[in-house]
Every structure is written in C-alpha cells, then in structure tokens.
Amino acid sequence: MKVCKFGGTSVASADQIRKVVDIVTSDSDRKIVVVSAPGKRFSDDSKVTDLLIRLGERALANEDAESDLLEVVDRYRSIAENLGLDSDIVHQIEQDLRNRLSRDKEDILLFMDTMKAAGEDNNAKLIAAYLQFIGVEAKYVCPREGGLLVNDRPERVRALPEGDERLAKLRDEPGIIVFPGFFGYTEDGTLRTFNRGGSDITGSIIAAAVKADLYENFTDVDSVFAANPTVIENPVAIEKMTYREMRELAYAGFSVFHDEALIPAFRKSIPVSIKNTNNPEAPGTLIVKERDYNEQQVIGIAADSGFTAIYVDKFLMNLEIGFGRRLLQIFEEEGISYEHTPSGIDNLSIIIRSRFMTKEMEERIVERIHKELEPDAVIVEHDYSMIVLVGEGMQYTTGLAARAATAIARSGSNIEMINQGSSEVSLVFGVKVKDETKSLKELYNEFFVKSYVQS
Amino acid sequence: MKVCKFGGTSVASADQIRKVVDIVTSDSDRKIVVVSAPGKRFSDDSKVTDLLIRLGERALANEDAESDLLEVVDRYRSIAENLGLDSDIVHQIEQDLRNRLSRDKEDILLFMDTMKAAGEDNNAKLIAAYLQFIGVEAKYVCPREGGLLVNDRPERVRALPEGDERLAKLRDEPGIIVFPGFFGYTEDGTLRTFNRGGSDITGSIIAAAVKADLYENFTDVDSVFAANPTVIENPVAIEKMTYREMRELAYAGFSVFHDEALIPAFRKSIPVSIKNTNNPEAPGTLIVKERDYNEQQVIGIAADSGFTAIYVDKFLMNLEIGFGRRLLQIFEEEGISYEHTPSGIDNLSIIIRSRFMTKEMEERIVERIHKELEPDAVIVEHDYSMIVLVGEGMQYTTGLAARAATAIARSGSNIEMINQGSSEVSLVFGVKVKDETKSLKELYNEFFVKSYVQS
C-alpha cells in the first residue's frame, strides 16, 4: 500500500488534478492521497495559501475582505468548472470560507491557522468530489476524524503518536482516501498547522502510521539532483539515497523535501519516493534506510551561503573545563542555534547562520564573551559559505578528503574551515562566499564527471 | 637583561653546575638565574624531587626515614664537594631538611609541598654559594622575600600579579640573583608548589615581572624539532616560532616547555629562548610574538595517541537549540575537558583524552546521554591519534589542507576526523592509532623534505 502526497503545483489547476487522478488510479496500491492547497499555475501566479493569509489579515484588520474572498472562491470555481463538476462543491467551499471568516478572532494565531488550513481542506474535498464524479470510490477524510492528533505548542506543532492507532484504520476504509495536508487537531479539537510545506509532514505521518510500503512525494521535478541545477548544468540525478544523506543535503540548500517530514518515515523505515507529477514515468529518487555504499561514495554536493563565524581565542583555553559549554550557553541564551564549532587548542569558532543573528545580538554576544570568558580575542567574520559533500560511503574511503580538498585548491579557493567527524556521512568545507560557486563546480567535476581530466 | 632558567639535568651534578656558571658569567645580561632541583645524572638515576617525595611519604607514615634523608643530603654533598665548597653548605641543607621533616603534618598537602620545594630551594642556595666561592657577586633570594606571590588554591596554584612589583625590584639588586623554581607563597606566607616542571613557570613569571629582554630556558636539547625525533630521523630544528605555535605543538606531545609557563611571557611579549646547557653555542629555538609566515607555513607536526571519540547521532539534532551545550555539560559535570567537537548536521562527536575517562565514567556518560538527550545512537571509539600541523602561515595558504590530506592518503591511512577552524594556527587530523606513525612520516616528507618526490 502506498501513500501519495501531491504538492501545490501538482494540484494547482484542473489539468494538473487530472494528472494526479491518472497517477492515483493507475496503481491500485495508491490508497491514501494527501493534497496541498492549489499552488502557482505560472510563475507570477499566487498560491491559494498566500491569498488566504491576505484574506485573514484583512478580516483581522476589519477591512472589507469580500473581493479577497471571491478571489479564493474563483480559484476553486475555475478548477471545479474545468473538471466538469457542478457548482455545489463551489458553494460548499464559499460557505466554508465565510464560516471560517466569521469565527472568533480573539486568538489571532488560531484564526489565521483556521484560514490557512482552508486551502488544503477544500482542495481535498474538491478532489474527492472529482474522483466520485468520474466513478472512483473515494472520500474526503478530515484530520480530526482521521486521527491526525498534534500537541498544543502552536510555536512547534508536532504529531502525537496517540493518533497513530486511528490513522492506521485508514488502511481498512473502502476506496481512496483524500486527506488534506498541513494541519491536525489537538486533543481538545483545536486546529493547528505545521510549518509551511507541512503537507509533506502529513503524508509522512500517515505513511508511518499505516505502515505503507512506500510514501510517494509527487512534486514538479524528476528527481533530486547531485548538485544545484542553477549552478551545475544538467547535474546527474540521484536514484537512491539514505534518509541521512537526504537530511544532510536538505540542510545546505536542497529544498525538495521538508526537513521534518523525513522523521516519521525514517523512524518506521518507510521508503520515500520523490516523483514528478508531470513526468510520472521518470524513475525519481528513492530515499531508503540503507544503500550499497560501494557504488557511489559521494551522492551529492550541497552549498549554502549566509554563514558567520565567531572566532574566540584564549591562551590555555583548553585547560579550562567548561569554556566551550559556557560559550555555547551564551548563544543558547540568545536563542541562536549553531552549526559547527571547529576548534584549535586555544581557540574555538562558532559557525552560525547569519540570519539568526541581528547586528544588535552580535554586539551583545561579543560583549558577553569578553566579559564572561575573558578571551584574548573575539573576531566575527561574515560571508562564509558551507559546502557539504554527502555520502554514507565516505567514511570508508581513504583519500576522499584529499581529493575534495585538492579540488577546492585547484579552483583557487582557500579553505577556511573543514569539519569531518567520526562515522559521519558528510564532509563540510567552509569557504568565503566569493569562492562558493567555483569550489562547487570543481568538486562536482571531481566526483561526478567521469571523463574529467585534472588540469 | 635576561632571566635564565636551568632544568633538572642542567643542575644535576658539579660538572653540570660548572657549565651553568660558565653560561651565566659569560654574558653580563644574565642577571636572574632560576634553578630546578638536581635531576638525573644518568638514565637510571633518581631525581632529587622524587627522593624528597619518598622521604615525605615515609615521614607521614611514621616510618624510619633517616636513610632516605641521608640519600638526599648525599646528593647535595657530592655536588658541594666536587665544586670544592666546604661542608657548611651541606650542614645547612641537612638542617633545613630536618626542620622541614619536623614540621606539623596535619595538613598533608602543605607538608608534602614543603618537602618537595626543598629540592629547588637548597639547590639555589648551593649554587649561590658556589658563585660567591668563585668570586662572583651573587645571592640566593627566597620566593617569599622575592615576591613570588601565589593564590591559595592548592589544586591550581597560580601567580598573583600583586607580587609583580616586588619581583620587578630584583632588577635593581646588585650581582646575580639565584632564585629557586617551582614554588611561591600565599599572601599569608603558606608555601605552595606549581605542577611538576614548575620551574619553567617561576622563570616566566620573573621574566615578565622584571620585563626581561629575553627569557632563556636551558635544558638538554639543542632546540625544538619540527617533529618527534624518536619517529623522524634527524628532524629539522625550529629556529623561530610564535607562542601560539609552541602552544599547539606542546599540546600534542612536544614536552620541551611547560604549558602554563608560556602564559606570563606571552602576556608581556617576552621572547623565550630554548637552549642546551651542554651545547650553549647552538642557536636554539626562539619563541616570539610574530614571525615572517612566508618563510615557512608549517613550522612543525605533532602527533599524540590516546584519544577517544564519543559519537552522538540524532535526527534533526541541529534544530534543537542547546543540544550541543547540554552534551558538553554532561562532560563538564563529570570533570572531563574535551579537545574537539566535530559535527555533521545531525551528529556530533566529542573527542577527549582517553586517560580522563575511566570505564565507569564512560558507562555513566553514555547512560546520561541516552537518558537526557534521547539520541538515535551513541558510539564510543577508542584508540584515536591526533596529528596536528602547526603554523601561523597556514591560514593564508591555498591548498595546504589538500597537500596534508593527500600525504595522509598516500600513507594508506584513513582520515577519521579533520578539524580546521577560521583564523587558526593548526590543522588537526584524527587517525586510528595504527596509522599515526606512517601518517606523521608522510606529512613530514611532504612539508620538510625538499627533495622529496611523491611516489
């Protein structure tokens, strides 16, 4: 049995929804279908979720929101009409939106969550109606009845395992289940949404709960590539990789699949397939627990800019028990998570994402370090990029770090930082932003272009 | 003006002390002489400090210590007689030892400190007497009168800056000052010793306080070498290096100069010279604040075994603010200082010196990590070696990490860990113990053997 999730572009129009239905009905194993809200049909288009956010904000500001409301309804009407559905479903959707708009606005977060969730919820109803219309046994399941139970921490919504038993029963329902992504309900019935892109999470939770054979994630690319296609021309596709590899790549700019969405599938070892709604015949990328590492040691190379290094130097630092801990605590108390902490004997650098640290925070942190740790020097350097070589086979391969470092040197770039730990699936190089692209290109040549001859 | 410190082997016998006196009197800038206790005269010999420790322990156990006492006195007698001194000084030393032995033994630490300090104290008196005997204006100065003031934390004795003013006055004393190393006094007059090898510290404190032009550290090697001479045949001598470079080398097995001893000299930018008492004409090694990095990017390569890696893996670890801090806190609460913390996206390794962690502590730590951090995996790996490439020029040199990693690969060794941070003076490679020597040899070839042709 398979759980399929379709992203925003896959369900943005009637034509796209027909492709989805073709895909779902072409394989009887495709039992549970998780859908996003309609996304962009063309590059300047608006996503329905963004329209709903604007609509909700208007309503909160007591402004006239009628035209915003009609714009959302029109998106659904256009889909419904083009699918040949009668206007019942459109009236239902309009009534649903008016109901949501008239709800209590005391709890702003809850009101906005309720508005945002309308995108997925109504799209699921519409797609279920279309399946029925063409004679396929199908039904919409609301996350509340379905069992998508979440905790009540609005700032960090997570699924609760207590819902799994109910979700697992979806297996036994007759026909195809159409389930809206992106939101769940707390024990007391309060609606909560996941982060943006949260339909991936819904699909993964359900796939884990029903112990699916496969969780298919349909999007608008043929596969995950070994490097960023906007930098490397026609990069090779990744046919198979492990959860850990996907996670490492996602960290540094590979945004194909939602970070948190991997967890439920990972915990239950459900294979995840990334496929293209517009080219379902393409093999796609399969994410699994283990792969044969001998075939390919390096599976992909990711690069991301926007890092800052805070370098702290203190003579005999290494004899001070607790120095590193106290330094990290300063960042923790400022609410900043860090990425790496490369260290020498008497120095330690904290590498963070620059966007997490405002100028004010930076000044306060530097002052606190001076005051609390009495270092010899604190130096803040911006404009770092991290280049991450990912591959489970790397740890067993003698000479791989040498090849990588040599490729970066060959590109004329200076390595500012290297971070490789024991048993790791990644090798991280820090370079200056200006050296990022040329380093990435040379690394790609080294590890993925067979005919590449070193200059 | 120069402060000279002579180590144990340099003052172990009358012949050695004559060499010391020749060195001191050959340069009128050599004003303050810090001496150790008599060390070994031959490889099976005992150091006087070790004899004193045995003597003190006998006394504490209420055992007959007379023969142990006489063995110490005999060592001084043999030196005094061979220097042609009359027996007055030997009687003084014997009386001093008997006085120390008869002191209150309630505070065991203080009693043992008092016994241990007798080695340096009496040697300083003896050498001052010999200088006077041959007609050189000289006097012994007791650390209490001299101003070597220390804090009252017996477990971590440190010089207090409040003593500096008094120490600085040693400059104005007539003749040569002979000052015993290794111990100082607290504000209330309690004797406290530094760590073993603490005479280096005494010399450095005085050199800083009197603002010496040079702090000469006389020992039994011609210079600091670029690599361990027991592994690399005839390694090149280091003529000049920076404090930071010395410190990095000292960390991984270069034990020429006491770690803490560098601090006072470093803080006041006093150049430190490592010289050989037995070959004072050799240029030695000069340790300074800055050097011309273009001449030599890599100054030395150190290697040390006995490291353990504790690897912790948790899916989405990197989204948990405070994960790394909480992990480090467990080690801090166990009183274990760590060396490096290489990290991937979802994993973190703590590299520690194996000797700091007993089997029991290891089990407790692993249990705490499981309980408090709920990781996916905790793996402890022993038998790591760290190889440290040291050089202030490295950070400006493109391709250096590549050359190093390539050399290690060429030796057939696998790199388990790499740690290079921003602005650093060192590049640290972790390898398995079995690969340490061959990696070190190949790195030495790469960076120090000009004629070396890559195989």
TrEMBL record, chains A, B:
Enzyme Commission code: 2.7.2.4
Keywords assigned by UniProt, alphabetized: Amino-acid biosynthesis, ATP-binding, Diaminopimelate biosynthesis, Kinase, Lysine biosynthesis, Nucleotide-binding, Transferase
Catalytic activity: L-aspartate + ATP = 4-phospho-L-aspartate + ADP
Enzyme class: transferase
Pathway assigned in UniProt: Amino-acid biosynthesis; L-threonine biosynthesis; L-threonine from L-aspartate: step 1/5; Amino-acid biosynthesis; L-lysine biosynthesis via DAP pathway; (S)-tetrahydrodipicolinate from L-aspartate: step 1/4; Amino-acid biosynthesis; L-methionine biosynthesis via de novo pathway; L-homoserine from L-aspartate: step 1/3
ACT domain ranges (all copies): 389-455
Pfam families linked to this entry: AA_kinase, ACT_9
Chain coiled-coil ranges: none
Database matches in InterPro entries: AceGlu_kinase-like_sf, ACT-like_dom_sf, ACT_Aspartokinase, ACT_dom, Asp/Glu/Uridylate_kinase, Asp_kin_monofn, Asp_kinase, AsparK_Bifunc_asparK/hSer_DH
Entries under CDD domains matching the protein: ACT_AKiii-YclM-BS_1 (cd04911)
Function according to Swiss-Prot or TrEMBL: Catalyzes the phosphorylation of the beta-carboxyl group of aspartic acid with ATP to yield 4-phospho-L-aspartate, which is involved in the branched biosynthetic pathway leading to the biosynthesis of amino acids threonine, isoleucine and methionine.
NCBIfam families per record: asp_kinases (TIGR00657), PRK09034.1 (NF006540)
Protein name per the record: Aspartokinase
